[in-house]
Amino acid sequence: MKERYRMRSVLERLKGHPQVKEETAYAILFAVGFCHLLNDMIQSIIPAMYPILKDNFGFTFVQIGIITLVFQMTSSIFQPFIGRYADRHPQPYSLSLGMCFTLFGLLSLAFASGFIMILLSVAFIGCGSSVFHPEASRVAQMASGGKKSLAQSIFQVGGNGGSAIGPLLAALVIIPYGQHAVGWFAIAALLTSMVLVRVGSWYSLMLVRANGRTVIRRKVAHGLSANVIRTAMIILVVMLFSKYFFTSCMTSYFTFFLMDRFGVSVRDSQLCLFAFLAALAVGTLLGGFLGDRYGRKYVILFSILGAAPFTLALPYLNLFWTIVASVLSGLIIASAFSAILVYATDLMPDKVGMISGFFFGLMFGLGGIGSAFFGWLADKMSVEFIFQVSTLTPLLGIIAAFLPNLRPIN
After folding, report:
1. How far is CA 148 from CA 20, 23, 24, 159, 409, in A?
2. Do the beta carbons of residue 155 and residue 162 sit within 8 Å?
3. What is the CA angle 140-32-277, rounded to 5?
């Protein structure tokens, strides 16, 4: 009887069951958070390399946008399918295997000699990320001991921290030494793969204890109807659109905006981008804690709509206040993602892998589409103009008021 109860507890944890209160596996959470840091650090190197690629190969903004689109689409399109498959057939060592794709892509990018080769290289890096995110998010929920917001925040802040470190390392390593220096970051991919082997061992042990049994699937959460859940999911998608169209413009073109408008150097523009991305990391961690305390709906509403005053002012300020506004907007708007993802898994607690894959995939996909769109618009108009347009998107945050109220689940 005790063995049956223990197996059931493990299985419920595997599915992100909201009532699990078992001990939090902090070692695993910090391990996947560290791997998320290295994974997203590698990813953030790609947009940080755009000024070098543009100078070396004479790329247009459209070509820069296409590179981002290919990278973001390969990072996103497979994630919901991988997550859905993992819900039914977890693959503990797929995390380490996926990082091998990233390793190959980095080495290929370091010696790419043309546009097509660069596209193939970033596609491999994107595929590695596509495998990593849904399974790693499932591991974080499995190790949460019921503290889902805390677990998601630890996992996500690792990713945002990596996104912030990437441009800084690019400024210190890649810009002085050129495109070939990106090959040094393959060491980070190798280290990540090794750590994920150990995580996979823990994950595999949990599956062995579960003994391959299935759990009862819940069709609704918190007594909400399927239609209400569907409407809430649509609102969450709109929230992601408003967040990531703005952040994709910042990530891909903020350096160009600063160089064109204020005449700063490439290195200084990368440091300014680092400040914005660091604010994203801090905001993500705050969002997880505030969501548990005040309700995820209100964090989502504040994080998107609350950033609007700073984003609207950003294109019209001097250099100092532009940096201040970018940091404040990043700090506020970043608190949305953890709240959005945990809110979505609360709505559908039996499909953690699929929901995580869908939202991570949508995040990358919207970022890629946004980057390509703003790249095209920058070629047609100007870099300054696209910031005047992108900074309007947080106003869509007002529709978060229509989300149903859910009791925070820890």
Report:
1. 10, 12, 10, 17, 8
2. no
3. 105
Tokens, residue 249: 């413009």
User: CA 217 to CA 273: how far, in whole Å?
Assistant: 43
284 contacts 157 by C-beta, under 8 angstroms? yes
Please tell me the total number of residues recorded for the chain in this structure: 410
Instruction: Report helix, strand and coil shares of the chain as percent, to nearest 5.
Output: 80, 0, 20
CA pair distance 63, 378, nearest whole angstrom: 12
How far is it, in rounded angstroms, from Cα 109 to Cα 120?
A: 8
What is the DSSP code (8-state) at residue 318? -
Asked if 41 and 128 touch (Cβ cutoff 8 Å), the reply is no
| Nearest CA among 256, 240, 388, 391 for reference residue 310 | 391
Chain-centre distance of CA 5, in angstroms? 35
Mean pLDDT of the chain, nearest integer: 78
| Residue 263 C-alpha from the chain's centroid | 30
What's at 73, amino acid-wise? M
Instruction: Please report, rounded to a whole number, the percentage of residues in the chain having pLDDT higher than 70.
Output: 84
Q: Which residues contact 205 (CB under 8 A, 6 or more apart)?
A: none
The pLDDT value given to residue 165:
80
Residue whose tokens read 């070629």: 379
Find the Cα–Cα–Cα–Cα dihedral 49, 158, 121, 94, rounded to 10°.
180
Q: Which of 111, 102, 121 is nearest to 186 (CA)?
A: 102
**Euclidean distance between the first and the last CA atom of the chain, given in angstroms as a whole number:** 27
Q: Residue 15 to residues 137, 171, 229, 267: CA-CA distances in angstroms?
A: 11, 41, 18, 45
**Residue 135 CB: number of other CB atoms within 10 A?**
29
pLDDT digits (tens, 9 = 90+) for 326-353: 889 888 887 777 778 777 877 777 676 6
Structure tokens at 124: 């491999």
Contact 158, 104 (CB under 8 A): no
